[in-house]
Design a protein that fits this description.
Two copies of one chain form a homodimer. By secondary structure, chain A is an alpha/beta fold. Chain A contains 13 helices and six strands. In chain A, strands 3-2-1-4-5-6 form a six-stranded parallel beta sheet, sandwiched between helices. Chain A is globular. The interface between A and B is large, with 52 and 52 residues.
Chain lengths: 283, 283
């Protein structure tokens, strides 16, 4: 009954519950009736040819956050005259990412907090821990906004551009809407729309994110494919009925990366990069 | 206290209420603190040079819904062998648009209903009223999805493409997310993201839509410009602090259009088309 936890979208009128039950709406979170007269006829549950939209994890899957931030901060620090171990800062920052989102989950009474704000809070603690001195408020803001200035992997833009010709393409990221929008302009990512955890007020891998994306796209989960370099992201998506594609990014966490070096799950597609993904999907 | 009606986004930690009060956050609906360390310094309240994002009304402002639908349905009806007064259907459909959204406002207990669904319900009534016969469920779906297949005005794509080089551009429309996304692919509209009434579960001109857009963009209302061919839309946006641009579309409702033939308000920009708008905004 996951549909019940997604806010809004009650429907009116006769025939709606009937249509919904044909598609098993209450199990999948997809309400066929709300998307106007879509019937069971066109929906084949286990067929990649029915995929209409691809939603992408972004940090690590589409953009190389680690190399980008280290380069950005190193150049900025030199210019600004700030001495710091920027590699330690960047690695430390990402290391507390999951815990910062867990904190939001554990304290619903505080309301949802967007990733920009989590980043800023974590940064303030890290700067103290790493004894980086001389940073004023504008500097801290500039560093936090570094997460809006990330470069894509070499194959990302070309692959997305090909995929966009046949599919709706969107991020489905824990980054907030403004972060993802500014990053897209910075990196030239040709998204059709921006889907963010912020829209659902839940961070991945909470089910509300994957089902919320399918709901906004007016597609059943089976017609949406999650693309990620992280096995746990795909596992959560697959459990809810989404199709899955794994693209390894073995240097995301640097030369000593230990996790997600290869596909560990029964994913619908395993591709070496976005170019191969586009080819496999007929683009 | 409009900020209070927008769900979520409570913040934590000391110093946040302090920062918010500097910017008058509780009056404008913009929470500076949630967007990480942004300070009052960069925000000048009455300066077009501070505009960062343009949000567009879509039906009538960006696309010519009436001509598109009449042409689409006439061609389809001929092929399908359905005789009908398609002009009457299209005009009648749009005539009940405002009432159908009012019905959603008046019945919050039913939950938010997306525009595709309102369109479908209105269509079913109109088909009966106009005695159009021979339409099955798939036909009704096809006609409803006509609102996803609308052509832009001649200047729309060129103007948007220029504006996109300097600004974030997005629809801010009562169309649902899937409708706007599919329309963008159909019509070649180069949006950076899709902002829809659906995301706020309120239809324009409810304040939640304009303030919700600014909130997701992490911009104060003064840095967001609403672009519309409808004076009432701009009036609602201006009241909340957004900048405004009027572009007349004197044939939107056909040759006998009576309203919105000219700007009726103190809008920041009045332009004859999106090309002039781009020029006026330095693109």
């Amino acid at each position: 009954m996951l549909a019940a936890v997604i806010p809004g979208h009650a429907q009116r009128g006769p025939g709606i519950h009937q249509a919904a039950s044909i598609l098993g709406e209450m199990d999948s979170g997809f309400n066929a009736a709300r998307c106007s007269g879509m019937t069971a006829r066109g929906i084949l549950m286990s067929d990649l040819s029915q995929v209409k939209a691809l939603v992408f994890d972004v940090f690590g899957t589409v953009v190389d956050w680690r190399t980008s931030l280290i380069a950005d901060f190193t150049a900025w620090g030199d210019k600004r005259g700030i001495k710091a171990d920027w590699v330690a800062l960047v690695d430390g920052w990402r290391a507390v990412y999951a815990a910062s989102m867990d904190d939001v989950r554990k304290h619903p009474e505080r309301g949802y907090v967007i990733l920009d704000t989590l980043h800023r809070h974590s940064l303030e603690k890290l700067v103290e821990q790493l004894s980086i001195s001389g940073l004023n408020d504008a500097d801290l803001h500039h560093l936090t906004m570094g997460w809006h200035r990330l470069y894509p992997w070499a194959d990302s833009v070309g692959g997305l551009t090909r995929l966009k010709t046949k599919y709706i393409i969107s991020p489905l990221s824990n980054g907030n809407v403004a972060l993802l929008t500014e990053m897209a302009k910075f990196a030239g990512l040709p998204w059709d729309l921006i889907l963010s955890a912020e829209l659902f007020e839940h961070y991945k891998p909470d089910p509300e994110t994957y089902l919320g994306a399918a709901r906004l796209l007016c597609q059943p989960p089976e017609q949406v494919m999650m693309v990620a370099a992280h096995n746990h992201d795909l596992k959560a998506a697959q459990k809810l009925g989404l199709k899955t594609a794994f693209v390894a990014r073995p240097t995301e966490y640097g030369p000593l990366q230990k996790y997600d070096l290869e596909a560990k799950g029964d994913w619908d597609i395993v591709a070496k990069d976005f170019g191969e993904l586009a080819t496999r999907l007929g683009c």
